[in-house]
Amino acid sequence: MLYTLYQLFGWLFFIVIFPFACVYLAFAGKHRQGLRQRFGHVEDVQLDEDKPVRIWLHAASVGEMQVAKVLISEFKKQLPEAAIVVSTGNRHGLAVAEQLLPDDVPCFFAPFDLIGIVNRALETIRPTVYVCLETELWPNIIRQAQHHGAKLFLLNGRLSKKSFRGYKKIKGFMQDLLSCFIKISVIQGDDAKRFRGLGADPASIRILGNAKYDQAMLQADPAMPERYRQMLNIHLQQPVFVTGSTHTGEEAMLVEVFRSLQQRLPDLVWVIAPRHLRRLTEVEKVLEEQGVASMRLRQVQEQGRSTDVVLVDTMGELAGLYSVATYVFCGGSLVERGGHNVLEAAAWGTPVFYGPHMGDFSDATALLEAENAGFCVKNPKELASMLLYFTERPEEYAVTGRSALKVAGRQQGSAAKQVALIKEDLHSVSHSSCVQTTTEILEGVTQ
What we know:
disordered C terminus; 447 residues; single chain; Rossmann fold
């Protein structure tokens, strides 16, 4: 029943947007091809026809694209006979893909999740393997990929408490969907428990860690610190406070933290990297209202830095900026956004400070806290107090930094294990079909 309703609402939505899409296509210019791909026209996506394995990897946005980069590197090592394509859900993901992915791995916009459109894309790409990252589950493409003979894998799987509560309301539908996957690789034990709670076959679940943490060490290029010092126009010993992936409300709270630190460290530079670039004007207004002058990073590169506060207005720079950070605060944690990847900074030997809302990365914070390399603060006042404490104890702070680096270094290998999971199953017997009748689906929902 739920699947039928999903189909119905999908087509109703399509009928509504189709006339507007036609108008857009007429005037879209350089964006026309992206919309054509949304409608399943992916003829321009070229794969090496000589390679017997064809992998379609779906990376919804920027974070997943970073995971995709690490996995693709492993695919090339373990499955050199595979041709790989990547789909994404938005233009930011596509922009990052163009920066991160190898030239022989094309990236395109994922098709709208309607059977006819999905089938058009599948008939063109003809995947041997379809890979979902994290919990990006689109019912039609999952079902139709299996109909077309692809083997399905869910990698780097994770389920927050909030998502689990929502999916639990449609457990029968989710159980049917999850049964399509040959293997489900999850990050930690809590994720495995939640997937089982949605009806996933326990035998299909593996706990293999977070491939995103592999990326943290891979990004730690020794040449980065000098490049980013030049970019920010700072000298070797100049202190830098990087607040990464901040969300609405956090910048206003962090202003007083910066001012407290600046009293102790007069030449401190504050680098703010909002999670979403569309918020740049909003952040500038918040800073202006509090009497804080700022420049955007592109301005700094063009004109030189004339303020103590720099706003990052380009994609994909945060990992590099961490390389010059003296102090790091992880955004999305003073407000309820689940936090972000703390090991990106730890990979540079920098301890990480964060608020109480780190639920999406509780595994990583637990690892850091166990080694006294990650510090949870309740509020901005406590953050300022802790940072000031360490400004007076540089030797103690250096020890925490070395611990952070060790923690990050120990988290390597997840991507290799997850790709090995696919390699092992590629030549196994065909997975049984996940297709059920409407009656069976309804029975599952009402259990």
